[in-house]
Amino acid sequence: MLEGTAEEEVQLDRAEVSADRARLGGAALAVLALLPFLFYWRLFTPNPVDRASFPHGDFSIQSYAFARYQAQRLLAGELPLWSPGAYSGFPFLADPQSASFYPPRLLLILLAGPLGYPYVALGLEAVLHLSLVAGFTFLLGRRLFRHAGIAFLVALAFTFGGYLISSPGRQLAALESAAWLPLALLAAHAGVSRPRVLNRWTLLCGTSLALSALAGHLQTTVLVTYVVSGYALWRRWSRAGASFVGVSLLLAGGLAAAQLLPSAQYLLLSSQTRWGYDEVAAGLPVQDTVQVLFPGSVSLYSPLYVGMLPLLLAGAALVLRGGVRPVRFWFLVALVALLLSFGDQAFVHSLFYLLVPGWRLFQSQEPVALMVSLPACLLAGYGALALLGRGGASAEERRGYVRAAAGLLWVLGVAAVAFFLGLVRDGWTADSAFYRLLGVAIFAALVTALAWGLLRWWVAASRPEAVFLGLAAAIVAFDLFTVGWRNSLSSDPPQARQQAPGAATAMRADAGREIFRAFNEFALDGNYGVQFGLEDIWGASPLRLARYQELVSSVPWERLWPLLDVRYVATWRPELPLASQIIYQEQVGDETTYVYVHRLLGDYPRAWLVGQAEIVPPEATLERLTEPAFDPWRTALLEEAPPFSLSPEAGAGLVRWQAHEPERLVLFVRATGNSLLVLSEVHYPGWRAWVDGQPTQLLVADHALRAVPVPEGEHRVELRFVPSLWMLGLGVSLVSLAVLAVGLAVLREQNPTTAEASASSPQDQRGSAPLTARSGLIPATGARVL
Length: 786
Prior knowledge:
Blueprint: H1 2-39, H2 41-44, H3 58-75, H4 103-111, H5 119-145, H6 148-160, H7 162-170, H8 172-178, H9 181-191, H10 200-214, H11 218-235, H12 239-255, H13 257-269, H14 308-320, H15 325-341, H16 348-355, H17 370-387, H18 395-426, H19 433-460, H20 465-484, H21 502-511, E1 517-520, H22 528-532, H23 546-554, H24 557-563, E2 566-571, E3 580-587, E4 594-600, E5 607-610, E6 612-615, H25 618-625, E7 635-638, E8 654-661, E9 664-671, E10 675-682, E11 687-691, E12 694-696, E13 699-701, E14 705-710, E15 713-721, H26 724-750, H27 752-757, H28 762-765
């Protein structure tokens, strides 16, 4: 009887511990989910005087322009495969930054549909992803450290560190792709040691990597994939580890195939495949390492800054626990990533450029700083464990480290004095370079003093862990919120990003129902055409067709503009090389700077008939196009012969537009002889042509345009964008989604209870101690944390 009673008490104690742990984890996740909304409270405040927005830049020019176009098309019941708004038309869905299949974007478009997807909706998307980062990092930290308080601290430092906080304003897609890194690492950590390769952690890892890819920043996804794969193989260097990685990557590729296959095709046809070393060697300036201690001293953003207390804790990990395998692993990742982030300023980038697949496809190496930020925060977690007495270091060793860490405070104090003397020498003016540096140094010294004082107070005597970690979280939040939040917002109202600029409105009003294109010479945002429904011959996306870029960069304006049906030019020039009339002007900046909109006076067709063709190899087409005597309205430059002989008099026929939609063009043609219908539309795989309902050949004309062979007589010519590679990718994604659903159902049916009970591997559970209500923590006294 007594034995039964004791067993029942043990079971009750375990149930109580489990309930306390769940409540603690839920409370921590709730706080972490809400903190990004506190950080960005000015985005959502109802007071219009206080309301702010993400600053003008990539967030508005690239991310919002693409998201709004996607929302407009989807809410109209159309799939945005193609966009005529930039680069004379481009495969919108194939551009990975369109995030056409990204579930969070699709959900927000659905929810914001009645409001027309306002600017604040994309801001909400960014903040929600910071909440995801915080939650996923907390879950990762709790598994790594077996300590909720430390996991909270690590999540706080990573989420609000300089790298992620600077991402929305620079590249929202980079933040969204990076958001799934902690979850993928969690799955790799837990799943690689399972006896069966196919388990719920494998499915979670593959899904996380797929979501990273669908978010649209492929460079970040490549980084995430390499680090997660490397971590899994480091955890278990065996056939089982390799199988885990292989299955996860296979599932990720399958789930994201609807985006990846079209994007791969677009990438292979883009100018990026022709980049050399010089085009991809840019990175952070080496001087940016100063911002590890002095955030904001080199640039507005400080991607390497994680806070002074996390920096001291990371140092503790290296000094007190440097021999532990995870510390060595994450230190190596951070060191290599730091060197890579400098680009060609460090030779490590050259090695990766030569040896690592995919490395040469991305222009800037700054995003590699992500792999400095997260490892630094994880090292801070291991350092916190050591200072809490859970890493094997003696009390004297811990006190010795804290005494040595005071040297950092002396360094910052000396720097502040030096900046003060420099300011006195220059004169006490805000124009002095030392004015800002002095403020930065004083703040860094203040925060470091608070951090060091807390560490000294902790190691001096036995203190409650909850109090120590609570104060640590407060210092980190004060530090990172102060450094980052003002740099991430602009006082401009969000409505300003939704309104069409006056120059764009003037073009539309003057053109009426005409089909036309414009040329924007730095007078409007790069993707204004995508956002506001106009057509431009250029844009702001870094991904563009190589053939088209060669055409635009090689042919002079006097020939290019008529060839691409440019009717309007938005520029700062009061005069143009072609006859034009100013229809709009607007003063910008100082009194001498204006934006002009010119209407070109020539009559340029969007489609025309020719009765002559020259077969010219691609490398000679551009030279022929630039010859003054060549007439593109009478002769087409082809790379292969048409299916029938042409009639020289065919150019006198009639062409009339009947439909001009993004993925569908319809024309009525009356040809006086066998001819070619040349369209000022960009040639791209997936465009197909029909003449009177019968499929016909679609040719490349004038290096980057389209031509349809049309026999004599009256005909209905139709072109549709039907990319077979996208349909193949969609099929693969649907099959992979079905496999994922079946796999989850099978695993749940096999053993739903055991699966939950074995959430932690035996290695993770070794030495864990019960949760105590008094401390409010999940201690692991004496544990060897892996």
